[in-house]
Every structure is written in C-alpha cells, then in structure tokens.
Amino acid sequence: MQEASRIEPSSQLSGVRYEIRGHLARRAHELERQGYEILSLNIGNPGLFGFRTPETMRLAMIENLGSSEAYCNQKGIFPAREAVVMQQQARGVMDVTAEHVFMGNGVSELIDLTLRGLLNPGDEVLIPSPDYPLWTAASVLNGGRAVYYPCRESNEFMPDPDEVGRLITDRTRAIVVINPNNPTGAVYSRACLEGLARLAEKHGLVMCCDEIYDQMIYPGSEFVPMATLCRETLCATFSGLSKVYRACGYRVGWVAFSGALDRAHDYLAAMDLLAALRLCSNVPGQWAVQTALGGFQSIKQLCEPGGRLFESRQAIVDAVAASPFLELVAPKGSMYAFVGVNRAFFPSFDDEAFAMELLEQQHVLVAPGSSFNTDYRDHFRITNLPDDATLAEIFRRIHTVLEAMARAGKKLETV
Fold this sequence. Notes:
It is a single chain. It is globular and about 65 Å long. A hairpin with a 7-residue loop joins strand 10 (326-328) and strand 11 (336-341). Strands 2-9-8-7-6-3-4-5 form an 8-stranded mixed beta sheet. A 4-stranded antiparallel beta sheet has the order 10-11-14-13, covered by helices on one side. Strands 1-12 form a two-stranded parallel ribbon. It has helices at residues 23-33, 55-63, 78-90, 106-118, 133-141, 161-165, 190-203, 265-277, 283-286, 289-294, 299-303, 308-321, 351-362, 388-408, and strands at 39-40, 101-104, 124-129, 145-152, 158-159, 172-178, 206-210, 234-240, 253-259, 326-328, 336-341, 364-365, 367-368, 379-383. It starts with 22 loop residues before the first helix and ends in a 7-residue tail after the last helix. By secondary structure, the chain is an alpha/beta fold. It contains 14 helices and 14 strands. The mean pLDDT is 94. Helix 1 (23-33) runs parallel beside helix 13 (351-362), helix 4 (106-118) packs parallel to helix 5 (133-141) and helix 4 (106-118) packs across helix 8.
C-alpha cells in the first residue's frame, strides 16, 4: 500500500502570523494543564477580568431571542444598522444610511470581507507598524501585499503623513488607520488624521479606519472620527461591541461607509454579495446594538480618574517609571500599553525569548512587540484590564526576570 502523502497547508498562510494566540499562548495552556496559574496579559478580553456587559444590553438580547431564530438581511437587522447611522450623524457624518452599514461577526470578519471585496492579486495596503496583525493577515489572504508605514516611538507612535505618502504606488488601494491604537495606545492628533485623509483623497485610496476603541480615551486626549475628515474618497469606519461595551463573546461588529459613495456602487454591491454568501451575522447579539449606542456610556466613567481602566493604566505608568529597565509612551487610549526595554541594560534583547522566559519562570504571559510586525524586538504589549493590585504583582515578576538578566549579562537566544 502506497504511503499517504502529508497534507500540506495552503501556501497563502506563509505570510500570516497571529502570535497573540500563537506558540506562547499554547505553552501557557500547557502550564495551566499542569496546575500553574498563568497571569495572561496577551489578549484584550474584558470578560476574563471581571468586566460585565451592561445589563441593558443583555436584557435587549434576551427580550428579542424570539425574533432571532431566522436569518436576517445579509447586512444585518435594521435597528442595529440604524443605530450606527444615528451615531455617525451625531458625530457629523451625515451621508451614511442603513444601506451603507454592514453588521458582522465582530470587526474581524468585516476586515476580511472589506479587503476581499477590494483587492486584486498584488494590490498593496498601507498598514501601520506596529499593527494589529489581523490587518496584515487579511491583506495577504486576499491576495494583497502589506506595506508598513512606521509609527515611531519618538512621535508618540503617530505616523508622519509625508512619510506615508512616499510609500504610495500605483498598486496601493487602501490606507489602514487604527485609532485609538492597538497595540500602542496612541490617539492620533487631528493634524495627523487630516494629513492621512488628504493623502487618501489625493490618490483615490479607500480609507479603512479601525475605531473599535473609539470611546476608550483617557483624560487630556481627543478622539477625532476619521469619517468627519475624509469626504472626497471612500471611508470605511469599523467598530463594534467587543471593547467599549465589554461584549467580546457577542461577536458583533459593523462597518459604515461614507464619503465618495457615488463612486463606490460596484464595490458596495460586491460587499453585499460577500455578506450574502455567509448568509448573515449572529442575530441575537445585534439586538444589543441599539441599546448600547443609544444608552448610558459607562465606558467614560471607567476611563476617568477613579475608574478601573484609568487606575490600571496609571499603575502601569507608575510601575514603568519606577523601573530602570523599562520605558513607556503613556497610552492615551485603548486597553493596552506597548512597553519598551532600556537597551543600555539589554543591547541584545529579544522580545520573544524574554516573553518565553517570563512565562516559564514567572507564569506571566505577554505579547512580544515584534508579533505586531515591527522591525525591532525590544517591546512587549500588555493589557491594562487587570486591577491595579494585580498589575503591581505582574510588574514585580517582570522586574525579577529583567534584574536577573541584567545581573548575569544574559543574552537570550531567539526562540
């Protein structure tokens, strides 16, 4: 009998990474099965840290379960789409209708659909570095090429529009903006966003705005919706229930198209086709959207002094300031901190090797900075979802590992 050949994965996956749930997370699961308690900071998953979805949203979903058993329209239920329209209009984006809003199984699905409907083989997408790696993965899996524009620490992790402009070619189709930013916590200035909007308009590029953290803003910062600045080209605004409304498991996201809608009929028809091919997104969770967007915005209290997210963020800022080994551009938004190490102590620092040692020795799981498609390896991302006491313990363990490395002059090999 002939020996069966190995089943090989698709070659399209060769450029796809998602180390947030990669080999480090798998090793953490192994340690948990052995009985160890792991402090996991690799994923922004509010429900795992005691954050509850607002009760009104839960009730809205429960009360409409009887209306959730059939497929809905491929774009989503009307009350959910109309709630997104009302939010956009309240922000000054007046050209959006319910026909321009697509509901999805989280923003993740809609990123894939949006790029699938846009890209031809070899087309380029401008993506920030560091990025949220799903944008790179979706570009590659849909035949495109990710071209990274730098968001430098020296500029508070904001991009320079002039530098972005020099990367545009005749194959560029879209610019991705993640604001407030994951992984860095940056909140882009109005001037920065205006510069990016003018680039997209000048070159006829689709502006893809990942604004899932739109209301997770700390005092002293201002969130400016890109759709209010980008009118002469197509703007796709992505958001959802997962983060601001602490409802990750509902898997409800949306994309709202605005701007040059008159030039996008064929593309929006392609989006409608792709939405129809997957029939529809999760119906029960969609019933929570109208209540979420129209109700009391409890996220604001969480991000103000005395609020849990504010205090956890401050605990991270204070812990880094007290450490000779660490550096940080204080996050202005989102639920993450992108922590750097002092190269004077660790000239050959490798973020993946450090993350594995921290996991093995101290049972703390972080995401290496290079997993966000950077060309440097001296950062790691953590979430500020744990309470401030837990974060103090986490940084004590981080300090223990770094102090031992500094004392020994240890060079960690790349894992």
